[in-house]
């Protein structure tokens, strides 16, 4: 917890230089993730053990949640452009409260599906609204001489990771009572977020006016440079998703169980919280946006290559975990370079007044790439190829993404 506290303190020191609106939105990301991750890590076991769903149905329900969230980000972003972020954020909070409360009492399959769809769509409303406004305010902060916009977006990443770290700890504590208590606690957090934003979020943000829906999507689909960024970002997310697909398989092989996964996930979160801001500051002083993403993608590729190089030795036990730990560290360092920069790049590629739409589309398009790519990755891991081959193929994905990045 020392590293977590240090990272949050650094983030807070940086946030003192930001506008009240930016501080509110960054703290919003922290609160969102605490409430969300207090529930999500325990959902799969609840559906399978307490409700008795078959494995395929559990996977289907979790997939629906992902689709209703990532797939509909573009809708939430467009609504934020049209009506402003305040009504969209407040509506998302209301839906999240209702979804968590419903999930806590749901016992039938149809009720669980309804609650999960509500939870996912809530995030599809408030997340692109918050992210797009943070990006817009970050550009204004940069233009006023405050510093690089990527520093502001790095703060958003730190807040999100801190919430993802604290949320499961809170959920595990409350799970000693029951899953319903966990859900109601998650709903309670969003009640507080709703009340705080109803009070503090401005009715009108200067410089942000409503735009029509018509014409926005067509222009986006013709924006080749933005779509190229989406594809490159999708390749990064596909690589990052291997924390949940390829890494568990490697940990199981090395130790005979997946108990070490929790430590590796904690390592990733703590690295982001403690090192994101220094890494962003270092990169911002030396690298342009494209070069920063190139460096991040190369680090991610190196992480896969470390495991590929070690697989022929077939190490087990503690020694067998070292390549997996190296993979996590390199992947996380790559994430620190890629994620804030990709968000910082979107305002330069977006059509005037449609930053919400483009921010949402970045998540929706890349999420679709992850959905399709994960199926291919699962097949690759099960084909019985030589041990190093799947990891080498995965290392090629971020390298190929470099060629997709816009040149300017």
From TrEMBL:
Stretches that traverse the bilayer: 21-40, 46-67, 88-105, 111-131, 152-173, 179-202, 223-240, 260-280, 292-310, 322-343, 355-376, 388-405
Domain Major facilitator superfamily (MFS) profile: 1-408
Cellular component, GO, one term: plasma membrane
Location(s) in or outside the cell: Cell membrane
PROSITE patterns xrefs: MFS
One GO MF term: transmembrane transporter activity
The entry's keywords: Cell membrane, Membrane, Transmembrane, Transmembrane helix, Transport
Cross-referenced InterPro entries: MFS, MFS_dom, MFS_trans_sf, MFS_Transporters
Pfam families linked: MFS_1 (PF07690)
UniProt KW Transferase keyword: no
Keyword Cell membrane: yes
Record membrane topology: Multi-pass membrane protein
Name of the protein: Major facilitator superfamily (MFS) profile domain-containing protein
Annotated source species: Streptomyces curacoi
């Amino acid at each position: 917890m020392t590293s977590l506290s240090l990272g949050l303190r650094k983030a807070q020191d940086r946030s003192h230089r930001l506008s009240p609106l930016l501080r509110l939105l960054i703290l919003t990301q922290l609160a969102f993730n605490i409430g969300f991750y207090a529930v999500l890590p325990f959902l799969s076991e609840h559906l399978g053990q307490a409700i008795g769903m078959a494995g395929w149905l559990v996977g289907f329900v979790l997939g629906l949640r992902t689709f209703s969230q990532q797939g509909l980000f573009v809708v939430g972003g467009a609504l934020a452009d049209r009506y402003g972020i305040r009504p969209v954020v407040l509506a998302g909070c209301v839906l999240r409260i209702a979804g968590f409360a419903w999930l806590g009492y749901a016992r039938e399959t149809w009720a669980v599906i309804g609650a999960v769809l509500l939870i996912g769509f809530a995030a599809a409303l408030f997340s692109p609204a918050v992210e797009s406004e943070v990006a817009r305010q970050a550009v204004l902060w940069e233009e006023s001489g405050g510093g690089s916009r990527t520093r502001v977006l790095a703060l958003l990443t730190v807040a999100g990771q801190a919430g993802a770290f604290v949320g499961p700890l809170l959920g595990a504590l409350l799970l000693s009572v029951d899953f319903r208590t966990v859900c109601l606690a998650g709903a309670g957090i969003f009640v507080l977020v709703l009340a705080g934003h109803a009070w503090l979020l401005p009715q009108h943000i200067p410089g942000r006016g409503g735009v029509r829906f018509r014409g926005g999507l067509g222009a986006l689909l013709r924006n080749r440079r933005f779509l190229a960024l989406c594809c490159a970002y999708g390749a990064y997310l596909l690589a990052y998703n291997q924390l949940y697909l390829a890494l568990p398989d490697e940990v199981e092989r090395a130790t005979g169980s997946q108990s070490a996964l929790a430590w590796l996930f904690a390592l990733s979160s703590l690295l982001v919280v403690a090192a994101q801001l220094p890494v962003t500051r270092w990169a911002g002083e030396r690298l342009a946006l494209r070069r920063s993403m190139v460096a991040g993608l190369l680090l991610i590729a190196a992480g896969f290559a470390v495991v590929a190089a070690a697989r022929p030795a077939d190490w087990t036990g503690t020694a067998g975990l070292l390549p997996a730990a190296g993979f996590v560290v390199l992947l996380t360092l790559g994430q620190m370079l890629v994620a804030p920069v990709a968000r910082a790049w979107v305002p330069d590629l977006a059509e005037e007044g449609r930053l919400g739409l483009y921010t949402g589309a970045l998540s929706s398009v890349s999420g679709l790439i992850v959905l399709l790519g994960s199926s291919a990755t699962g097949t690759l891991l099960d084909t019985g190829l030589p041990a190093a081959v799947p990891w080498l193929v995965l290392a090629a994905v971020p390298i190929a993404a470099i060629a997709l990045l816009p040149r300017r």
